[in-house]
Design a protein that fits this description.
The complex is a heterodimer of chains A (193) and B (393). With 193 residues, chain A is α+β, with helices and mostly antiparallel strands. Chain A has two helices and seven strands; from the N terminus they run βαββββββα. In chain A, β2 and β3 form a beta hairpin. In chain B, α4 crosses α5, α7 packs antiparallel against α8 and α7 packs across α10. Chain B is α+β, with helices and mostly antiparallel strands. The chains are: A alpha+beta (193), B alpha+beta (393). Chains A and B meet through β1, α1, β4, β5 and α2 of A and β3, α1, β6, α4 and α5 of B.
């Protein structure tokens, strides 16, 4: 972790932005050329990187990488491509209940499209709602989807965790704990003999 | 050392946007708890003291906010001094409920050296032993008693599940959070997007959509379609399924055989003509195979034969009925004429069925032919899965 990230925060503070924070604090201000603090997310809009090349280039925290890119940035690298999955998901402001951004999922595939091989690398691409201007009108309707190269997006990239190696220190119960929990139930229910 | 800071100055959070307090276990123990125990200043007052007996989990949530950012985990210091009058166990009861330890304590290492232990507790509403388990989980971290330098004893104690009394007092640092009720392997994905999940699993066929609702009440439907209210066996199955319903429901929908049509389905054992003779055997069969696997892996001996008693109704050839004589007797009363003896009940109800739907007798044979091949085999009573291979493929 770099020094300018945490602003002298004591141990235990980490960059775990919510979707809303990413959009409101980072993407909106970036797009509107407003100053923002902390300026921790780098621009990586020059050329597309393979996900495993992000270390040292993108902002990394907890096995996740964050960087700015451009909306129409090519999603093809020398090893594969980011394939979009599913549909856009709206990011709703918790205060105004308006749509402040959109989130889209990509999975990195190795090889040539469309026959590439699925990998565990996932990308969430955050962008501002499609509208005529870059204003934060929050309208849900897609106006004319402008193919605007200039539009910034934020990419969050991570490798999907295997079942067994994901953190036991987080806010999840380990498999073993889950088993113990269900055994607690067994204690209290007597099976008919 | 920096000077002591408050988490918020004039209501303004000192934590910059995007940053959360999400310490590692090592940081919790080695930095925060060690400082607390040594009564040293902590740079930023992020972990408050909480009297566990006075605050409910949902109150702790309010008390332990850090800045204004949304949280899904809360941290606090707690002093373990209250004991139950009956013994040495820590009293963790609140007004609304109590914290109950679960599982075994986990050893926390730092740089390969053992530094402390973690206890996992669950919040139950109400009073023991009738508490209602909630989704609130607490991880309670304690430092190893440093006056003991003999590491081997510690390890031995931990291995035996014994509790060193000296470690059970004093300051601990706790994290509470709400358990996510999601399948672990898919959890991260469902959290982020259900639409992604769907697309990753491939577009679901109409078939799956049609039978989605059957996943929920498969057992109930089977019992209902049997026309009775089984008491004892129903209870066994319900009891088990309540433990394992999560895993059970995670099973992907199997491709069900196309053999039974709606007319066939109407041939479920009944005691009389039904104005609305649709019983959805088709999805029932699908879930039934899953249930059988489940039963076979989770039950043994007596329980298995009891449940097989039900299954034999689904292969109602005469040979089956006699073959499973013993099991049939254990069946709860079906809705059949009260005069019949118990061993004839299934037989009887099938017969009634035949006469009331006599026009489709050919299909009866078609439907049953595949079960007969296996059900008449003497090995049926031994292999609870034998019809799976016949039906499922």
């Amino acid at each position: 972790m770099a020094d300018d990230n945490g602003d002298n925060l004591p141990p235990g503070f980490r960059f775990y932005p919510t979707d809303e924070e990413l959009v409101v604090h980072f993407l909106h201000r970036k797009s509107d050329l407003l100053p923002f603090h902390p300026d921790v997310i780098p621009d990586l809009d020059v050329l597309p990187y393979n996900p495993w090349e992000l270390q040292g280039k993108a902002m990394s925290e907890g096995s996740k990488w964050y960087y700015y890119s451009r909306r129409m940035q090519s999603r093809v690298t020398d090893s594969g491509y980011w394939k979009p999955m599913g549909m856009d998901e709206p990011i709703i402001s918790s205060s105004s209940k308006k749509v402040v951004g959109l989130k889209r999922y990509f999975v990195f595939h190795i090889g040539e499209p469309p026959s590439g091989a699925w990998t565990g690398w996932i990308m969430h691409e955050y962008r501002l709602p499609d509208s005529g201007s870059s204003s934060r009108s929050g309208s849900k309707k897609k106006g004319h989807p402008k193919l605007d190269y200039e539009k910034w997006v934020i990419c969050k990239v991570y490798k999907q965790q295997n079942d067994d190696d994901d953190g036991d220190d987080g806010t999840q119960l380990s498999c073993l704990d889950e088993v113990f929990l269900s055994m607690d139930d067994l204690d209290e229910i007597s099976l008919p003999s | 050392m920096r000077e002591n800071m408050n988490i918020s100055v004039n209501g303004q959070s000192r934590v910059p946007p995007g940053f959360r307090f999400h310490p590692t276990e090592e940081e919790l123990l080695q930095y925060y708890l060690r400082k607390k125990v040594a009564n040293r200043k902590i740079d930023l007052d992020v972990i408050f003291e909480v009297d566990l007996n006075r605050l409910e989990p949902w109150d702790i949530q309010e008390r332990c906010k850090i800045g204004s950012t949304p949280q899904n985990e809360w941290y606090f210091f707690s002093h373990k001094d209250k004991k139950y009058p009956t013994g040495t166990r820590t009293n963790r009861a609140t007004v609304a409920g109590f914290w109950k330890a679960t599982g075994r304590d986990k050893v926390i290492y730092s740089d390969g050296k053992r530094v402390g232990m973690r206890k996992t507790l669950v919040f139950y509403k109400g009073r023991a032993p009738h508490g209602l388990k909630s989704d609130w989980i607490m991880h309670e971290y304690r430092l190893d008693d440093t006056t003991h330098s003999n590491n081997d004893t510690h390890v031995a104690n931990a291995m035996n599940g014994e509790i060193n009394i000296t470690q059970e007092e004093g300051w601990v640092v706790c994290r509470i959070f709400k358990k996510k009720n999601l399948p672990k392997s898919l959890g991260s994905f469902i959290n982020t997007s259900s639409s992604t999940l769907t697309s990753m699993l491939g577009s679901p066929s109409d078939h799956n959509h049609d039978h989605d609702h059957h996943d929920q009440g498969a057992l109930e439907q089977i019992f209902q379609s049997m026309g009775g209210k089984p008491q004892k066996n129903n209870m066994i199955i319900n009891t088990i399924s309540s433990f394992h319903v999560d895993k059970f429901m995670q099973l992907p929908s199997l491709e069900s055989p196309t053999i039974p049509t709606e007319d066939d389905v109407a041939l479920m054992p009944r005691s009389g003509p039904d104005p609305n003779p649709v019983y959805n055997l088709d999805p029932g069969l699908t879930d039934w195979t899953a249930l059988d696997r489940f039963v076979a892996t989770h039950l043994s001996g007596q329980d298995t034969t009891e449940i097989m008693g039900y299954r034999s109704i689904f292969s109602p050839s005469s040979s089956t009925v006699h073959h499973h004589h013993d099991e049939i007797i254990q069946l709860p009363p079906l809705r059949s004429p009260p005069s019949t003896s118990s061993e004839n009940k299934v037989y009887q109800s099938c017969g009634t069925l035949d006469s009331s739907h006599g026009g489709i007798g050919n299909e009866i044979i078609d439907l049953w032919s595949f079960t007969r091949s296996s059900s008449s085999s003497p090995s049926l009573g031994v292999d609870p899965l034998c019809h799976v291979s016949n039906v499922g493929l």
